[in-house]
């Protein structure tokens, strides 16, 4: 099954102007100095963050459903046409090590069954009501407009960008790329610090680090490695010479350097991946997301060949904007995500690096609890999960929101007012990756609005 991914055309055009060529690091990367090459080539440690972005806004209530009697009754009342049955949820009941207050219980969607063993084994944690915020916000403050909130709430493009970058659409850098800025100089191949396996996303763009784009099958060759252009080998050779030959201007020279770097990096990655043939990674199901994660695993397996010890990856899947077809389509999508992430985790176990790889979900926003026939509308807070050998699992982290519409925990129609910010979520991941407390507010500019004691959510 191949599900189309949703990407912002305007965001793509904005970033394309900065990237120059897909899969190429801009000349600014040179300013990193490459000072860590020798150390990176011999270092025995390796860590990776893998962002799994669910484009469109995943429906939170049919991903992690309320299960205790009173909460389930409120859930069923709010969305009678799309609610999951309690009988179907029973085998998916989560049993965290620490009980939730008020006798609250949750169950995973049945389609996410492949991930339940990871939760039970302590390799997966669930996070309640995570969303984009600029500062701690109560409902009273939100209604009185006495706090800053992300602009253009409930807008796909802007909230995708705010989740990835702490700024609305048009942001130049994302927090994954800003983490990459801090570690790129310690990699032998700084160009391969930030790897995007699913197209273009601001998440991996740093102030200096620029994402290297790959496809599910490997690095993207310049001109698709074509030997001819309009049937002419001479034309193809001439075009390559023009692209790499430089010129009489700084722009032409920089362009030539970018193209040559693209050619060199493609050759480097392609040669390394030859030592990790695709047929050796057979655990993955037939989904586009699984193809992306398989490529990520292959690149991790040759990290020493590539001279990298810290990498940030981005993979994604689209189709989660379910204004209709929630009952029929979301289970298929969640099943694809669960099977792909489980296969990826199992592969890292086989590779012996499970405790050094952490994957986590992200999305534009959650959705409304109230249903419109067979779908839900754009929301705000949502439920997310983290998987990896270093995860302190069997936890459900965060404040369980009251189930209903116009409660103290939502801003209408069951649109959750986030109680855990993306910044806190990201800070916990960044600290595990090696980002110091002093660097966190550079990576996450809104984080300073939260008390320092809340920067670490405790799932790593």
Which descriptors apply to this entry?
460 residues; alpha/beta; ten-stranded mixed β-sheet; two-stranded antiparallel sheet; globular
N to C succession of SSEs: HHEEHHEHEHHHEEEHHHHEHEEEEEEHH
- The unreliable regions are 1-43
Distance between the termini: 33 Å
Helix content: 25-40%
Average predicted confidence as pLDDT: 89
User: How much β-strand is present in the residues?
Assistant: 5-15%
Biggest beta sheet attributes: 10 strands, mixed
Structural class call reads alpha/beta
- What is the count of structural domains? 1
Shape: globular
In DSSP terms (H or I, runs of 4 or more residues), the helix count works out at 15
Number of strands: 14
Instruction: Write down the Rg.
Output: 22 Å
């Amino acid at each position: 099954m191949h599900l189309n991914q949703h990407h912002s055309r305007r965001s793509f055009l904005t970033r394309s102007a900065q990237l120059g060529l897909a899969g190429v690091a801009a000349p600014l990367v040179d300013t990193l100095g490459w000072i860590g090459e020798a150390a990176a080539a011999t270092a025995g440690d390796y860590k990776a963050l893998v962002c799994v972005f669910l484009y469109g806004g995943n429906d939170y209530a049919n991903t992690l459903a309320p299960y205790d009697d009173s909460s389930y009754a409120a859930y069923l009342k709010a969305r009678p046409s799309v609610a999951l049955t309690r009988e179907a949820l029973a085998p998916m009941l989560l049993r965290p090590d620490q009980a939730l207050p008020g006798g609250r219980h949750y169950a995973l969607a049945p389609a996410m069954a492949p991930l339940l063993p990871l939760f039970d084994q302590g390799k997966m944690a669930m996070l309640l009501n995570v969303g984009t915020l600029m500062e701690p916000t109560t409902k009273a403050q939100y209604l009185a407009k006495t706090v800053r909130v992300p602009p253009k709430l409930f807008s796909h493009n802007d909230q995708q960008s705010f989740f990835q970058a702490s700024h609305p659409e048009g942001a130049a850098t994302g927090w994954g790329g800003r983490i990459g800025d801090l570690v790129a100089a310690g990699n032998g191949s700084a160009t391969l610090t930030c790897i995007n396996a699913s197209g273009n996303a601001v998440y991996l763009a740093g102030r200096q680090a620029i994402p290297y784009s790959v496809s599910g099958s490997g690095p993207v060759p310049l001109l698709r490695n074509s030997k001819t252009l309009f049937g002419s080998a001479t034309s193809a050779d001439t075009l390559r010479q023009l692209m790499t030959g430089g010129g009489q201007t700084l722009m032409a020279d920089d362009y030539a350097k970018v193209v040559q770097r693209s050619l060199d990096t493609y050759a480097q990655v392609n040669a390394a991946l030859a030592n990790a043939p695709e047929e050796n990674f057979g655990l993955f199901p037939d989904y586009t997301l699984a193809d992306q994660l398989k490529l990520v695993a292959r690149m991790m397996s040759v990290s020493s060949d590539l001279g990298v010890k810290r990498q940030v990856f981005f993979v994604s899947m689209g189709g989660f904007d379910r204004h209709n077809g929630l009952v029929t389509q979301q289970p298929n999508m969640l099943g694809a995500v669960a099977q792909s992430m489980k296969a990826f985790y199992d592969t890292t176990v086989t590779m012996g690096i499970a405790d050094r790889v952490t994957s986590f979900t992200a999305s534009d926003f959650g959705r409304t609890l109230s249903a419109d026939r067979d779908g839900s509308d754009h929301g705000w807070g949502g439920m997310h999960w983290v998987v990896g050998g270093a995860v302190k699992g069997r936890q459900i982290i965060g404040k369980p929101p009251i189930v209903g519409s116009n409660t103290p925990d939502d801003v209408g129609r069951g649109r959750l007012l986030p109680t855990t910010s993306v910044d806190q979520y990201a800070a916990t991941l960044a600290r595990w990756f090696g980002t110091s407390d002093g660097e966190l507010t550079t990576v996450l500019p809104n984080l300073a609005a939260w008390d320092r004691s809340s920067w670490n959510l405790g799932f790593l």
